[in-house]
Amino acid sequence: MTAALLLVALSASASSNLQAVLDRFRAAQDVPGVSAVVVRQNDVMFAGASGVGDLETSQPLAAGSVFYIGSVSKVLTAVLTLQLVETERLSLDDTIAAIGSNSSDNPARVTVTHLLTHSSGLEREGNFGYWFTADFPDDDALAAYLANAKLRSPPGTSLHYSNVGYAALGAVVEQASRQNYSDALQSRVLVPLGMLASGATGPADGAVNGYTPAGRIIPSQERPFAGVGKKVGDRHVRMYHGARAMSPAFGAYASANDLGRLASFLLGNGGDAVLSKEIRSRMHECQASGWGLGLKIRRLSGSKVARHDGWFAAHRTHLLLDIENGIGVVVMANSDNATPGKIADALLNAALAESPR
Questions:
Q1: Per the CB 3.0–4.6 Å rule, which of 42, 169, 289, 322 could disulfide with 119?
Q2: Rounded to an integer, what distance in angstroms lies between the CA atom of residue 119 and that of residue 333?
């Protein structure tokens, strides 16, 4: 067998093994559909799907199917923010004067770094009940909340994951770029990276349906999330609601193919016009809070990894970057009960077994 044919055979074997992992985990988690992409450096090791995006039509999923990516939106916001830092429109040490400007309880000022690393002291959701009401704040309501915000702790002293903190970053981006957030993300990040099926805010044409778990409504029958729609078999459709000013925190959409491009970029491949390799490397470094700049930094099977989970309207996403081995994994699922992080871990292990170190 020639070297070229051997590589083709190995690639086909790897793809078959990764597909088997995806099929097995989708069935075990009882999820209608899952799509995934695995990249190594600039190469796509696997792009595939298992199951369906619509239970009524049985429309099969593909790696190009569009999902809402929930809090993986924060990774895009972090990239956009850091681009403005590199072009000197922002500094990581800039203070955000709008936060707590009407409160006398804040002993120190919140910086861009604090917002990126969830160490601002801001609450997770603020005083908004949007998960149950679908009443997401507009720009004015968010600004009013931030101006009167009382911090849980002094900035930089503790980790507390904050959606309103990343919504605040969206406002910072708008001021620094002199563009609205959606246009800035599209022109500065998504288009340059070739993420042409992605956007900052929904609704997204052709997005797959999201579903409640079989026989259950999350978080309970008595108090379900907003947007529980019609019943389909033993599940309910979850309805999309626009995130408005919260979009920089969890409102974007993308396909697994597009997030595979993002993963490759975050691992340092291409995209130098968007962010330098140096600042992408800084995203992977633990800051005082234990997070990197927009990414959670952990160890997995002895290797340093960066990752982020996302959940919105029963669409669940996980982005996993094996920094040391240069492998990125994206998993997207369409049910509230899915745990895509576990699938991503399994795909990474399978990819490592197929790849020479």
A1: 289
A2: 29
Closest CA to 327 of 274, 257, 263: 263
d(C-alpha 306, C-alpha 79), whole Å: 14
121 CB contacts (<8 Å, ≥6 apart)?
Answer: 106, 110, 114, 151, 152, 153, 154, 155, 157, 158, 160
**How far apart (Å, rounded) are the C-alpha atoms in residues 330 and 35?**
8
Helix 256-266 vs helix 73-86: crossing angle, to nearest 10: 40
The type of residue at 84 is L
Q: How far is CA 263 from the centre of its chain?
A: 11
Q: Which positions ≥6 away from 350 have C-beta within 8 Å?
A: 17, 18, 21
Q: What is the pLDDT of residues 157-190, one digit of tens each?
A: 999 999 999 999 999 999 999 999 999 999 999 9
Helix (H) or strand (E) holding 254: strand 253-255
CA atoms within 13 A on the CB side of 299: 3
Residues 54, 48: Cα–Cα separation, whole Å: 17
Helix ranges (H only) for the chain are 3-29, 73-86, 112-116, 130-133, 139-147, 163-177, 181-185, 247-250, 256-266, 277-283, 340-354
> pTM for the full model?
0.95
Residue type at 105 in one-letter notation: D
Query: Smallest Cα–Cα separation from 169: which of 70, 282, 73?
Result: 73
Picking from 13, 58, 62, 59, the residue whose alpha carbon sits closest to that of residue 34 is 62
| Per-residue pLDDT tens digits for 186-241 | 999 999 999 999 999 999 999 999 999 999 999 998 999 999 999 999 999 999 99
Are 189 and 79 in contact by the 8 Å Cβ rule? The answer is yes
Amino acid at 284: H
Domains of the chain, first to last:
25-354 (3.40.710.10)
Give me 256's structure tokens: 């697994």
Phi, psi of 271, deg, nearest 5: 70, 25
| Cα 350 to Cα 13, 21, 299, distances in angstroms | 11, 8, 17
